[in-house]
Every structure is written in C-alpha cells, then in structure tokens.
Amino acid sequence: MSWYYIEGILINCGYVLMVVLGLSLLTGFTGLFSFGHAGFMAIGAYAAALCTLYLHIPYIPALIIGGLAAMLAGLFLGSFTLKLKGDYFCIATLGFGEAVRLIFDNVQALGGARGLSGMAMKTTLPVVLTVSAVAVAALVCLINSRHGRNMVAIREDELAAQVSGINVFRYKMMALAISALYAGIGGGLLAHYMGYIQPAMFKMVKSTEYTIIVIFGGLGSVTGSVVGTLLLTFLPELLREFENWRLVIYGLAVIIIMISRPRGLMGGTELRIGSLIRFFKNPFGFFRKRGAAGEEGGQGHA
Amino acid sequence: MTVFLQQLINGLSLGSVYALMAVGYSLVYSIMNFSNFAHGGVIMVGAYIGYFAMTALGLPFWLAFIVCGLGAGLLAILLERLVYFPLRSRSAPFLYYIISAMGASIFLENIVIATIGPTFRTYPQVFATGPIQVGGLAIGRIDVFMIIVAVAGLLLLTLIIEKTKVGLAIRASSYNIKASTLMGVNVNMVIFTIFLLGGVLAGYAGMLFGMKYTVYPQIGNITTKSFIAAVFGGLGSLPGAIVGSVLLGLLETLTAAYISSNLRDLIAFVVLIGVLVIKPSGLMGKLAEEKA
Q1: Which of A97, A143, B2, B159 is the most buried (most CB within 10 A)?
Q2: Where in the sequence is the domain holding A28, given as residue range(s)?
Q3: Distance between CA atoms of residues B18 and B8, nearest Å
C-alpha cells in the first residue's frame, strides 16, 4: 500500500468521523435514532460547494456555512418530528434523508442527478486532522457539561428526566441540531475532497452505514466512535480483493454484533491515556478490572 | 377521461402489489413493534426462486408460483429464528432489531450478487404481451394477474386472521403480548405464523414485480415504498396497510402521468413525512405509546 492510498483512506475516515461523531451524540448519548444523516451531509456538501463555487467564499468559512445550513435543516425537521414517540422519529428521519436526496436529484439549477463539480480539492490530511481534533474536543466538552448529562438522562429514562425538570424537547432539539452541524461539516469536507458531489452519494444506505459504525463502536462512547470509524473504513479497503463478498461479511458481522455483543466495541466506556498506561504496565490485571467495570457500564444500555 | 381511467388501473395494480408487501410489515409491527427492513431481502429472494424454478428447473408456471411462496415463507421463518429469536430471548430494545434487520438485508442482497451475479434477468413469458382492450382502455394481462393475486392473497390473509384460532392469537398478541402469553397464547407460534404469512405474500410480490419488470438484486428496495404505504395506512393495522398501499399506488401513477415521473419518488417521501407530522398513527392505526 502506498502512502498516497493510505492518505486517501485517512481523509475518508475524517469526513466519515464527522458524521459519526454527530450521530454518536444523537444516538449514543441522547438515545434518538436517525436514518437520515446522509441528508444532512448532502445539505452541508451542497451549501459548502455553492459557497466556494459561486460566492467565492474561502474554504473554511464555507465549511462552517455548510454545517450551519445542515443545522437549520435539523432544527426545521426537529420542530416537526421530535414530539413523535417510539420509532416514528426514526422513520421520519428516513423519509427526510431520502426526500433531501430526491430534491437535489430534481432541481436542475443544482445540477440535477449530475450534481456539482469543479470544487477546489482543499480537503487535505492536515485539514481533516485539525477539524477532527476540534470536533472531538468540542464533543467531549459538551458531553461532560451539564447539557451533556441532561442528554444522557434522557437516553436512560425520558420520563424520569422530564420529571426531574429537564426540558426533554429542548435537549433533544439541541442534540439533533449539533448532530446535523457535524454531519453538514462532514459533507463540506467530502465535497472539497472529491471535487464533485452527486445526489447518489447520499443514499439511505449511507445513513445506515453511519448508524452501524456508531453501534459497532459502542453507544455512549466518543473514543468508540473514533475507533469504529477507523476500523470500518479501513476494513472494506483491506477486503477489497474479495470484492463482492466483503459486503456479505459486513452484513453478517452486523447481525453477529447485535446478537452477541450489543454494547459494541466499547459501549459506555472511554479509552483514556491513563488506562493505556495501566495496560502497558500490567496487561492482565488491566483486563480483569476493565472487564468488571465494563459489565457495570453495560447494565444501563440493556 | 380515458387517460385517467388507464392510470387508475395502473395505479391499482401497483398499489395491490405494494399491499402484498405492506401487510408483511404491518403484521410484524403489530406484534413485535419494529420495522422489519429485511422484508425487502425476502421479496428479492422470492423473485429469484420463481425465476430459477421456471428457467433452471423448467417447472410450469403454477408450480413455480407455489414453490416461490413456500421458499420465501421458509426464508422469512429462518430469518426470524436466526436473527430475531436471539434478540427476543434477551428482550433487546427495538433498535437492535432494526439494525439486525438492516444487516440481514445487506447480507441477502450481497450474497445474491456474489453467487448469482448482479445482472438483470427477465422472466420467461407467461402471459401474452398484447393488452386486453376494454372500451378504449388497454389493460395489461400482467396487471390483471397482479390485482387478482393480491386480492386473493389479502382475502386469504384476512380470513386466517379473522376466522381461525391462530388468527385470534395474532389479534390478541397485537393488543397486549404479555397478557395474551398469560392467557396461554404461544407467542413463538404467533411469531412463526406472522413471519410465514408475511414471507409467502412477500415472495409473491417479488415474483409479480419480477414478471412485470425484471429480476435484479436490488429489487428489494421497492419495499421502501410499501413501508411508506404501511406507515401511511397506520403501522400495525392490516386494513390500513391495504388502503395506504392502494392510495400510494394511485398517487404515484397519477403524479407520474400528470406532473412528472421524476417527482414520483419524491411524492412518496413527502407523503411519509406529511403523515408523520399531521397524524403519526396513519389513516387507521393505533398510536404507539412509548412504554414508560
């Protein structure tokens, strides 16, 4: 594998990570499921691309504008659908994602099915690394704040959270908006990495893929999302010689994880530098302790 | 007027096949409270079973038709046993069912691509291609057959649900699964039955679509539409699923005829969101309250 190839995969990881982080906040920490994040990504990608192509706005502000556009869409969607219970919200996001793609597909001013092309390819590895680092740091700060704890309370028991005086609707809305912001920035990164975007890039399958990554990494774990993104983006590349069989294995793996290890890789726990040092000092004792802690953490998600 | 009637018939035939698929979603939702996204995989495999029964095995059409239903029903039961049963015995939240279902759907689609290949295949000709002429209207023979199969299948399903003992158990479980277990209903049996019924109908839907268009690994994606139809009519309600399907079929063909065929799919999703915003319980469903 040449460095050029690996660099490409890492940049891929970068924009996938943005969407996955957003989804992790929504799904892993607030307990809301979305099958429409590809739609937010599409809005971000188109908004950012239009900004750089026609308005000649510099790259970084364009990314932020893309994110804000997706956030607005999130607020709009949320104001209608967040009062829905059960999996109706999930279905609504599915409809939203597909509707967004079909709208881009049909609006000829935005290129229709051919999409937009000619964006400067400004998404390089240093940019992706910086954006990811900022995104992870911001997310960790949010989760450890009072607002983050309120979201976790909603995930654990919505009724109890409401009774304790948490404004459930407001916090769900906040989680959805921030989640859409992340997805939108991810879309902007994608648009300026590929140099072109097409509605076909934002199909429902993509939304499902991101949700699968979040679950694979573990609900309620930021580091889990990062590790999950790296593994699940590299894995298909490593399996490239098996071509058609890799998605068969992928589907099978998803089912097996759901059945045998529903917490994902590291659900509810975080990878910390301190625990890494402990691991290298005493690997065996580390696993005994971590295993016990993991079991406790797992109770909340069952 | 003729154009309108023509589109009405096209819409009805499309809607009736949507209904065959949508009742599968609704049956599973009414008992297990999750959307079985693996349904599309069953439809796709059903279409392939029918195709290979007729071409590779050289069976006559009626026999291939029966084999297709049995095969798809068997696959649906297998899916339930292998994928959902382990989740059920752990009483996992609905989300895990949805993700597993999507995994199963990815698995089925790609195992067909890997083993049979991604090419489009056409069914051997069963009906004469010339349409039936009724007073200026040209009705495709396959469309008539679709409506007949759908009506017969749905009538049979309604009979089973309304008149048999298993049907009574299904209805009881859809009201309250815990209470019906306490009353001696065998829930495993109920779930076995709904997957079998849903699977058989899905297989037929797949075969009908395959006959009208072609067979290909992504044919299962058409279930997104029947899923919308199920939500439109009210998830978990059988009559709702049927009415929703027919209405969606009509809406789609009329949009394609009078506005633009590009907007067909968009209309479907707009209907989905509209229904969820205005009346999430759909036309005739009961609103699912989150259990506190």
Answers
A1: A97
A2: 3-204
A3: 15
Q: Which residues does A6 contact at the CB level (< 8 Å), separation at least 6?
A: none
Query: How far is residue A196 from each of residues A47, A51, A160, A189, measured CA to CA in Å?
Result: 13, 14, 47, 11
Q: At what angle do helices B187-212 and B165-175 cross, to 10 degrees?
A: 100
Q: Does A102 fall in a domain? A: yes
Dihedrals phi, psi of B247, to nearest 5 degrees? -60, -45
Question: How wide is the angle at C-alpha A81 spanned by C-alphas A78 and A83, nearest 5°?
Answer: 100
A·B CB contacts under 8 A: 119
Pick from B90, B99, B104, B98: which is nearest to B33 by CA? B98
* Tens of pLDDT, residue by residue, chain B (292 residues): 788 888 888 899 999 999 999 998 889 988 888 888 899 999 999 999 999 999 988 888 899 999 999 999 999 999 999 999 998 888 777 778 888 898 899 899 999 998 988 889 988 888 777 788 877 788 888 888 999 999 999 999 999 999 999 999 999 998 888 889 899 899 899 999 999 999 999 999 999 999 888 899 988 888 888 888 888 888 878 888 899 999 999 998 988 888 887 788 888 888 888 888 888 777 877 655 443 3
CA–CA separation, A91 and A273 (whole Å): 39
Q: What is the DSSP letter of B33?
A: -
Domains held by chain A: number? 1
Query: B34 contacts in A (CB within 8 Å)?
Result: 87
CA distance B193 to B166: 8
Whole-model pTM? 0.82
B99 closest CB neighbour out of A85, A95, A254: A254
- State whether residue A136 sits within 8 Å of chain B by CB: no
Q: For chain B, which residues make up each domain, given as ranges?
A: 2-220
Q: Is residue A145 part of a domain?
A: yes
Q: A271 in a domain, yes or no?
A: no
How many whole angstroms from its chain centre is CA A189?
A: 13
Instruction: Give the separation between CA A82 and CA B141, rounded to whole angstroms.
Output: 46
How many Cβ atoms are within 10 Å of B148's Cβ, its own excluded? 12
3-state DSSP call for residue B134?
A: strand
d(CA B95, CA A258) in angstroms, rounded, equals 10
